[in-house]
Design brief:
Two copies of one chain form a homodimer. In chain A, α15 packs across α20 and α34 crosses α35. The first copy, chain A, is of the alpha/beta class. Chain A is built from 35 helices and 33 strands. The interface between A and B is large, with 53 and 53 residues.
């Protein structure tokens, strides 16, 4: 088909979204889809991407066919929206936006309010009844157009604005009057004329052609070119241009702007939910400057709020909005988050997208949509982002615990959290990196606070509603959030937070409850979440479709219980060194490490044996016959070394060695790079008696367990088959001794972590000895990428920012690098031993994207922290469904 | 063909070596080859490996065919050697040894002097004229046989020996008389009879059958079984058994024992060389207990030695020995090291093997053998072990330097070395690990000293000749050695070394010259080696056959000069950080690192720029147009951090920041695992201005160089293509600026180190940007194996001992692990960019085995330390020849 030079949408235009993103650009395709669905989007037209190439082929000229077609496109908009482009009485204004196939945020130019000139600004002033707004819009348009189209430095205009404010003795733009704005317009126009030697173009059509050319031109701007090169986006894709009618919610008392959700994003309840402001612009709602009103009467009454609801203020438009909800959910088959504007009694939908929601709401919506027949069971399973379950699985405040409420705000994101007050993002990150729990306390948040919000356990803001930046982002992250706690005041200079009665310093501990909106002094005890209702339903559906088993990383009886409660089907990683930090044992462990003679070490090991045996017995009894993978001692021994003088004193008494000797031995054990040092099976190779003691403890406990357990003994940090051979000899010898003495045997496996690149490469021969592999992707990531997790804070943020890694590789498996090694090891291992059991026990075992990857490799199980087990169950089901699709 | 149950060799037996090692075992095949060559080996017969399986199939019984054949085998020996098995007048004694296809050192049993009984011992006593020797031999035989064949604990016999020494009031076995030995024999026989309830077998044939069965049985001993399992040697291979006549060099004045080389192993001169002792056993020569005599009259005279030479003492046998030399070299086509025994005027060759030699000798022998037509030019190139060149390439003592000689010994291994005196191997290793140069000083060395000798710069012994353990091993290692410096005395208790006039403590600095045998006080200056003569001839031949280029790792003008002198064809790695440690610069570098504001850093960088430019200019001028690969800043910044209070003071003055601020900043930069921390291109990503300054300095220097250079700019520690993209942008921008300002351009390349597993895996996409790869195998080994080189000392020795790695993976590339990544990266890189330039610049670039490996991958060049360039040239030639073969 011949290219159309412009593709209209909205009004009575034919559906055009089938032309797709490559032709219409991402933004254009979305608008066309909304229009085709019957939603009242402000009308407009799209200039498709091929025109961009034609523009460059013509040496930076708009193709004549396009210039000729523009009046037709404008006529389509005028017919649909009323008003006329360039008409002084009822002017139509348009936006001109870029839109490439893929989003290139901030890389190309946009012009808003195009069509304003000396005549039309008067029409806008009259129709809005707001002269200041009209001239402020004109002023902004001149500056934007001069910058984008005419290539003038925006500082020229900002200087004029500052001078005006100085003249008027005010600090804020908002303090300038209509007359001031009008005067500024005059100055801006003079600035343009002086700089260019010709006047600012007052012909709206000339403005439009200029803006379209400038958007095309911005495709090859330096920053866009660099961005494309770095992101490997082809130069010849070009950008589409979308020209769309501007609509205004501030044209009087019959105008309004608002946001709405088709279901309650906090609870999932099927009810109209949202906020609006009469005679306001969209940015007023989002910025939280005016307090928005409720949409429905019932919501207003429930909240005991003063302002009239939209249902009461604009019953007709409200009814129209309500009727769109069913249409939206039928079309998009999910809860929608919409932005709307009412201009002079007419409803326009500016945007619709899948709505963010709390975990609780996600579950309820998925389950109820199945009940409603909107979606199927597998779709419900696939629909819920496993990450949001996190919110449901963390403890909530113990209702019986005493609490001193010091402030209240909106329950913006559910869950409770305690931590030290921090007043900015940098401090949040700094303290969190040191392992401190922090609560980010801000007047309001902005995108620059994202990293700090992520680092914090919870967020508290003084301003902003349920749809403020803080609230939306916190819900997405699963962080508890209390927003709009109006009684708190932040003194950034003195680093203090004032509430009514208290003054708290940065670092003081508070607790926030994002489910109630309360803020409390100190740390409040918590209780376990309830795991029934929609959660149980969805997990049951998920388990039906899951292929991989889900195990937990746990070594305490308490964690084992949590793991089973959350549905873990075994222990994938019990870290024996965690059992060694117990204060009652650390002296024995230190004696073992610092022993100079085999006999000294043997004595310490003999005392550790019954303690380890008791540890394992508890785990086996808790897991009642489920498989338990026990990793023999792994960490660098110096982690156990005495730190304080007192430690040395105690140790000297216990061991009979002098403090000086102990210090010298400890000094010998210190390492430059402990992560790559004397740890893992290297300990077993140099001191086989340690692994021998641990193996003996495992087998003795196994024979004593109530239900016969299935121990899987895991040798860490293997790089060669021979290490495993040597260590398996030690384990098997212990088994023979214990079983021989008891006259009874038990099945067990000996396997290895695959956590070094060499182990992955040599997996074929290692599998000749190993009966299972567990991918230790934390360490494998460290060595494959050469990044120490402990030290990555110095540069990893910059790496994520610059897109070097798309996500933190310690959170989501680096599929291209580490993933290839995992794939290769799985393949080579199973070539040698077809039934080799394969699992993953790094942090990635609880990360949905990583789970999807290992599903593709046919792993038998994933293992993650007990709290993440439900996430892993759901993610594994989704991965299995996606693989089957 | 049907299996023969025994395969005779020596005497008039038919050649049998063609049956091969699998059938005859390694030891048997060697003896058969010697016999077939016409060398007078003591005759014997081999029981082939299939008989071992038959032994086990028969439930541990000797196959009857074998038992029936034994008299025939013995008859063959008797005919060849004279004497009869079991004959009281002229008894034949035999050894019975195991011999598997591959060497299993110490794993299986051996019985010597078999055939002794109450009658034959008298014959031995008479014929040797040494009753004490005969009964001592019998005593030892009884103990060995009882242990190996009869399964008695050897402590039983040692207790009897100790009692006897106590009774006689002596400490050494050698102080016991013939009568004492005879009495001991009686006691030993009684011990056996009491323990077994039956007498010691006195029938030599019964003894022989027992010993053969015991050797077969030792194949399945526990330690041999474990050894095979760990080394993956099949159980069903079995062992052969070799029965061979014993010959004795201590049967009177017409008997002797000695060692000889077909050429002088120190100089390579074609002359009879060696030592012998009249009326002695072989162990007397090797142990260095008696001082051996020269073989030739001329050597004796040259040395001014007292004892008569073999040429003079036994002219007939000497002539026979001399005539064998040509035969040996024609057959083995290399210099041979032989052990011989003269029994009652008859010459026997016990062993011949390719002789160890000094580097100088290796070159001369290879070159002269080509001249003699014995071998061809390519064979000469392949023949010389590149590692031995090392000895020739290190400095020798400056002849003009004053020196105080404090002792003299034999010039046992050439070269000079200075270092601190250490008195044992442990201390040598400990101090060497700390970077200290040490000289190992011992009375004599034994195999337990190997590690210490390796750690030492040189070895000095008080006892032992030119063929003592110390001398042989030191020559093999290329370590200077002075042996038999008889005036020194070691006080191990007080840790002192006494010479005639001096008493030196452990730790005192001495210099030894292994070329002259002198020992000097303190450190003596050295001079460069001469690189002409045989060395130049061989290098010329090598270069004709070499495919890969050889470059050097160097960044100082002095090193660049050495590199060119040694034949380097470019610089493969100039480490820019090495230029930063200069005392005049370190303050600037520290200011740069600790800068808090971009402006502060910019100021420090501006001062560093001219210094870096001068560095590069020197290198470019020195290398005169050859390619120079410059690596941008790589190490963890904290390596540059101030250490001492004074450093902080200086820095505070220079930067205007307070010491407290500087300390805080420095603390922030400390890392847990600096090897995996904020280093390499991560510095460039977070502070692009550093790399920008370095690139600018390179380009400015390049334009100023006398000969236009060819800079190859290398970005370190890349793991992703994007890092390289970002850094190439910085480098290219600097180039454009410099070239634009100068109005002149130069060609250059931008490439990357491949030193992380991820980089190897993603080499395909990285090569889309990289114009060359240089394999940084030091770091790649650290990350692939997960071993920090700094910390590996704690366990790597144990790893090598237990065969987990066959060789130190930081010296010789781990082909199975790291090698696969190198291979994969080379392949993927060239799939993207077929002409991608590939090199290696880790330590492995100078290691012959590793060079052979990368030749197979088609790398373009290797780069190594300047001193190793000749080694690399030779190794690369050998690799190319081996690949072509």
């Amino acid at each position: 088909m011949p290219h159309r030079v412009l593709v209209p949408f909205g009004g009575n235009a034919a559906p055009a979204h089938w032309l797709g993103k490559n032709h219409l650009g991402g933004k254009g395709a979305n608008l066309a889809e909304m229009a085709a669905t019957g939603l009242p989007v402000p009308p407009g037209f799209i200039i498709p991407t091929p025109l961009c190439s034609q523009y460059y082929e013509a040496g930076g000229q708009l193709p004549s066919a396009l210039v000729e077609a523009l009046p037709e496109g404008l006529a389509h908009i005028e017919a649909a929206v009323g008003g006329r482009f360039g008409d002084a009485a009822n002017p139509l204004l348009v936006s001109v936006r870029s839109g490439a196939r893929v989003s290139m945020p901030g890389m190309m130019d946009t012009v808003l309010n195009l069509g304003l000139n000396r005549d039309t600004v008067e029409g806008l002033a009259r129709r809005s009844g707001n002269r200041r707004f009209a001239f402020d819009s004109f002023r902004r348009f001149i500056q934007m157009y001069a910058d984008v189209v005419l290539g003038l430095d925006h500082y020229l205009f900002e200087d004029a604005l500052e001078l005006m404010k100085d003249d008027r003795g005010v600090h804020l733009d908002t303090a300038l009057s209509a007359d001031d704005m009008e005067a500024l317009v005059g100055q801006y126009l003079a600035i343009v004329e002086e700089a260019l030697g010709r006047p600012f173009p007052m012909d709206p059509l000339e403005q439009l052609q200029g803006a379209i050319g400038a958007v095309f031109g911005s495709w090859r701007s330096e920053r866009a070119t660099v961005y494309r090169r770095l992101n490997h986006i082809p130069e010849d894709w070009g950008t589409a241009v979308t020209v769309q009618a501007m609509v205004f919610g501030n044209m009087g008392e019959d105008s309004a702007t608002g946001v709405a959700f088709t279901r309650d994003p906090a609870t999932g309840e099927r009810a109209i939910y949202g906020e609006f402001l009469v005679n306001a612009q969209g940015e007023d709602v989002v910025a939280g400057i005016r307090t928005p009103q409720y949409l429905t009467k019932s919501a207003r009454e429930r909240a005991g709020a003063a302002g009239v609801s939209m249902e009461e203020a604009m019953p007709g438009v409200f009814a129209e909005l309500a009727s769109l909800f069913a249409l939206l959910e039928r079309h998009y088959r999910d809860m929608q988050d919409i932005e709307f504007t009412v201009q002079e009694g007419r409803l326009w939908l500016l945007q619709t997208r899948t709505g963010k929601r709390t975990g609780k709401a996600a579950l309820r919506i998925a389950c109820e949509m199945v009940d409603e027949g909107l979606i199927g069971e597998t779709e419900a399973v696939q629909r819920v982002d496993p990450a949001v379950l996190d919110q449901l699985l963390h403890p909530t405040l113990d209702p019986a615990a005493p609490r001193e409420v010091i402030a209240s705000g909106l329950p913006a994101s559910p869950g409770a959290a305690s931590g030290a007050i921090v007043l900015d993002s940098q401090e949040a990150e700094r303290r969190a990196a040191l392992g401190e729990a922090v609560i980010l306390v801000r007047a309001e948040t902005s995108p620059e606070d994202i990293a700090g919000m992520h680092a914090a356990r919870g967020i508290l803001t003084a301003r902003g509603g349920m749809t403020s930046h803080a609230a939306v982002v916190a819900r997405g992250m699963g962080r508890p959030c209390v927003s709009g706690a109006g009684t708190i005041r932040i003194d950034a200079a003195e680093r203090l937070v004032h509430t009514g009665r208290h003054t708290l310093s940065e670092g003081a501990i508070i607790t926030i409850d994002g489910t109630t909106g309360q803020v409390m002094l100190g740390e409040i005890p918590t209780v376990e979440p309830e795991l029934s209702g929609h959660f149980a339903t969805l997990m049951e559906w998920a388990d039906r479709h899951r292929r991989m088993k889900v195990r937990a990383n746990a070594e305490t009886p308490a964690d084992c219980r949590v793991a089973r409660q959350f549905g873990a089907e075994g222990i994938g990683l019990a870290r024996t060194e965690h059992m060694f930090f117990d204060p009652g044992r650390i002296v024995l462990v230190r004696r073992m490490i610092l022993a100079q003679e085999p006999a000294e070490r043997a004595a310490a090991l003999a005392q550790l044996l019954p303690l380890q045996r008791a540890d394992f017995l508890e785990i086996f009894n808790e897991m009642a016959g489920l498989p338990v993978t026990i990793r023999l001692l792994d960490p660098p021994l110096h982690e156990f070394l005495p730190q304080r003088e007192q430690d040395y004193q105690e140790l000297a008494e216990a061991s009979g060695l002098s403090v000086a000797t102990l210090r010298r031995r400890a000094e010998e054990l210190r390492e430059m790079n402990p992560m790559l040092g004397h740890r893992g099976c290297r300990l077993g190779v140099t001191s086989p008696d340690i692994y021998g003691m641990q193996a003996r403890a495992i087998f003795e406990a196994a024979l004593a367990a109530r239900t016969p357990p299935f121990p899987e003994i895991m040798i860490p940090l293997v790089a060669t088959r021979r290490e495993l051979d040597l260590m398996k000899t030690v384990v098997d010898a212990a088994a023979e001794e214990v079983f021989g003495a008891a006259g009874r045997r038990l099945d067990y496996l000996v396997g290895t972590m695959i956590e070094l690149p060499r182990a992955a490469l040599r997996a074929g021969e290692i599998a000749a000895t190993a009966e299972f592999f567990s991918f230790g992707t934390n360490d494998l990531t460290q060595t494959t990428l050469g990044i120490s997790r402990d030290d990555s804070a110095h540069f990893l943020a910059a790496y994520l920012e610059q897109g070097i890694y798309p996500r933190d590789p310690f959170v989501t498996l680096d599929v291209d690098g580490v993933g290839e090694l995992v794939e290769l090891a799985a393949r080579r291992g199973r070539e040698t031993r077809p039934l080799l059991k394969l699992g993953i026990c790094g942090e990635h075992g609880g990360d949905p994207a990583s789970i999807a990857f290992v599903e593709g490799l046919g792993l038998d199980y994933v293992s993650c922290s007990p709290w993440r087990v439900p996430i892993a169950r759901l993610a594994a089901a989704q991965a299995a469904l996606a693989r089957a699709a």
